Structures are given as structure tokens and as C-alpha cells.
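Exercise 7. Given the encoded structure of a 396-residue chain, write a plausible sequence.
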């Protein structure tokens, strides 16, 4: 068995990670982190929607024996690119199969849209910790996901930089206790932070896709420009940290150095600061509760010059107020908020509606919705479907 001192000094085991959404920006950053920390993180399975070439490349690099492909029509194409001993799991069922792999410690869900809901719940029910990078999981089904995690005793590990920052400030504990005054999410303000109100209606797609700080996919970039991204994060925080929407605020911080803050009832505030690099919150989520040396360079405070904070322009960008309403009412309204926004963003990207048409559509669909309890995934998915159909009809 070896001596007690030798056993105590043994290195902790690697975290074995199933990565759902490996070919997107979060997935690629996760693989970068795993590459940098081979003694801490082991990727054991990968899933992607339809980027066969990239998925095959990632599978060869990591040596995984399980991959999932959501687009079943590309199975033969993928098969030709992989070693014969790699098992291919297909469609929605394939995601579920990866989520419950016996060898996994953590399932990181970075799938855009509703496809990640069932795998997330399956992972929790299989006793896996869940690293959450997909906003839809908690926005649509926060009540279900958090209840299941509490019942199974598994950890919800936030990957978004803002929620990861709060997670660090709370030292991994949920924030619904009496000592917490409020959670403060920081927002960059997007590309239109200083744009005059009378010019917002004329914003172009190209302008909306030029984020001043982060490099993200087009949907998230536009959500940042409208502040819908921050609205979605407010609803996520409500569930992640067990705190009411009335105690979740947003402050604009254009430098994106302070990633979020927690204010305590004694008036003190804890903030998490670091460079803008998504690899860091991914690393922290996958190595928690330990801190390990990774890719992130320390801050050079004299070089920062200044850190600015200002209130969001909710009159010009009403997403924060719409999100507060959705999260406060609860039930199926957050799912409707999310789905209507996705449809409206698609319409804006297709240049079918003007920039303000995004929040005008969301507000109208929310007003038309008869809120139902969100205690089952079926109810949540039904509300999502209704909102998409209603938004599409309104924009037709």
C-alpha cells in the first residue's frame, strides 16, 4: 500500500471530461486547456453537430474512443476519417450516450440551442458533475436542472466568465444565504455603448458583429450588442446561485477586466479580475476546487491605466429589463424570452428586420405568452416551440 505520507502526497487524479460541442469556440478553448494541462484534464469523448473534419482531427489528437455526431447524414464521412476502434454515436441519442459514459467525471455542455438540455439532465442523473457553457440549459430549465443536481449531489460548474467569477467570489457555495446582498454581473457594453439613441435604428449587421473585447460566434456577439447576452446571464445566475432576480444587477465595464462581483450585507464587495481569456474560466471549472498554473498571464496593473463602470442604457437596450421580468415571473417565460430572441437574431442576421426589431419581437412574444409551470422538460420544450413559431409568424 505504501507509506501514509506517500499516499497523502499523491497527485490528484485527472478529471475525465466528456466535451459536448467540441468544434465551437468553447470546445476548441477547452481542448487548448486540456492540451496545456495533460496531468489535470483528460478528454475522453467528443461531440459535434456536423463539422466532420474538425471533429475527426480533434479525435485523433485526443485519442478518444467515443465521438458523437448530431448530423446523422454525415456518419459515413466521419467513419472514413477515424480509426476503426473509435465508436461513433449518432443524433440526439448519441449525445445522451456520451453524457452517461461510466468513465466520465465531468460533462461539459457547450452545445448551442436546446439540444443540450436532455444530455445535461442525463449527465446529472448519472452522477456526473456538469460544466455549463450553454445558456439555454439554465435559462430554459433552471428549476429542473438545479433540483436534479441537488438531489444527486453533483456540482454545477459555470464556464461563462461572469458566472465563473461569482463562483470564485463565493468560493463554490451557492449565494442565496443571508450574507449576500447582490450579485453584480459586468458587461462590456458591446459595440454600441456610446452610440447616440437616434442612431440605434440604423445599426447594420456588420457593425453589430464587431465586438470591442471578445471574439465569439455571431449569435453571442449580437446578443452582446443588444445586451440580451447579459439578460440571459441574469436568469442563469438566479438558478446557479439560488438568489432572487431582485438581487442581481448589471453594470457596464468596458475594459472587461472585472468579470463580476458579489456584494455582501456588510457593504464589502469581492470581485474577480483577470485578462479576457475564456481558457481561464474553463480551466477553473474543470480543475475546481484546486487552482493550477495554466495559460493565463497575470495582470499588469500599471498598464491598465483605468477601470470604468457605468449603468446600462436600459431605455435604449431593454434586454436587461425584459430578462428581469422573465426571471421574476419564472415558469416558461424565460424559455420564451430565449427562443424569441434566437428567432429575432436570425431574422436580423438575414437582414429581414432592423436592429431594434430584435427586442421589439421578444417583448411582443412575451406579452402574448400564457405562462405555464416549468417543472418538466416537456413543458419547457413546448414553450420554446410555441415562442419560435409565434416569433417567426410575427416576423414573416
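Solution.
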Amino acid at each position: 500500500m505504501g507509506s501514509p505520507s506517500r499516499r497523502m502526497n499523491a497527485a490528484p487524479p485527472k478529471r475525465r471530461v466528456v466535451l459536448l460541442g467540441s468544434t465551437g469556440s468553447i470546445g476548441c478553448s477547452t481542448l487548448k486547456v486540456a492540451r496545456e494541462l495533460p496531468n489535470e484534464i483528460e478528454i475522453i469523448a467528443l461531440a459535434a453537430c456536423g463539422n466532420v473534419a474538425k471533429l475527426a482531427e480533434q479525435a485523433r489528437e485526443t485519442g478518444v474512443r467515443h465521438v458523437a455526431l448530431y448530423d446523422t447524414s454525415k456518419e459515413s464521412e466521419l467513419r472514413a476519417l477515424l480509426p476503426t476502434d473509435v465508436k461513433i454515436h449518432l443524433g440526439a441519442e448519441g449525445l445522451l450516450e456520451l453524457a452517461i459514459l461510466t468513465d466520465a467525471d465531468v460533462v461539459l455542455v457547450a452545445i448551442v440551442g436546446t439540444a443540450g438540455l436532455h444530455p445535461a439532465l442525463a449527465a446529472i442523473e448519472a452522477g456526473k458533475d456538469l460544466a455549463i457553457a450553454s445558456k439555454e440549459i439554465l435559462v430554459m430549465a433552471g428549476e429542473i436542472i438545479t433540483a436534479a443536481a441537488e438531489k444527486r449531489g453533483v456540482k454545477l460548474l459555470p464556464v461563462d466568465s461572469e458566472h465563473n467569477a461569482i463562483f470564485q467570489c463565493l468560493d463554490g457555495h451557492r449565494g442565496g444565504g443571508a450574507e449576500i446582498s447582490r450579485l453584480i454581473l459586468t458587461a462590456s457594453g458591446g459595440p454600441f455603448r456610446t452610440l447616440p439613441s437616434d442612431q440605434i435604428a440604423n445599426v447594420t449587421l456588420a457593425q453589430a458583429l464587431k465586438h470591442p473585447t471578445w471574439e465569439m460566434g455571431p449569435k453571442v456577439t449580437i446578443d452582446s450588442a443588444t445586451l440580451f447576452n447579459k439578460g440571459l446571464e441574469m436568469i442563469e445566475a438566479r438558478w446557479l446561485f439560488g438568489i432572487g432576480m431582485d438581487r442581481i444587477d448589471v453594470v457596464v465595464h468596458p475594459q472587461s477586466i472585472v468579470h463580476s462581483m458579489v456584494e455582501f450585507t456588510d457593504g464589502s464587495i469581492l470581485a474577480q479580475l483577470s485578462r479576457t481569456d475564456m481558457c481561464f474560466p474553463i480551466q477553473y471549472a474543470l480543475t475546481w476546487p484546486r487552482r493550477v498554473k495554466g495559460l493565463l498571464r497575470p495582470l499588469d496593473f500599471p498598464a491598465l491605466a483605468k477601470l470604468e463602470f457605468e449603468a446600462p442604457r436600459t431605455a435604449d437596450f431593454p434586454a436587461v429589463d425584459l430578462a428581469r421580468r422573465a426571471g421574476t415571473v419564472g415558469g416558461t417565460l424565460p424559455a420564451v424570452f430565449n427562443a424569441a430572441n434566437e428567432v429575432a437574431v436570425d431574422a436580423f442576421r438575414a437582414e429581414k428586420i432592423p436592429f431594434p426589431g430584435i427586442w421589439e419581437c421578444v417583448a411582443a412574444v412575451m406579452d402574448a405568452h400564457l405562462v405555464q409551470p416549468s417543472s418538466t422538460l416537456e413543458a419547457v420544450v413546448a414553450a420554446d416551440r410555441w415562442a419560435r413559431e409565434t416569433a417567426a409568424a410575427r416576423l414573416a
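Remark. The chain has three domains: 10-159, 171-275+300-314, 330-396. Students should compare their own answers with the one above.
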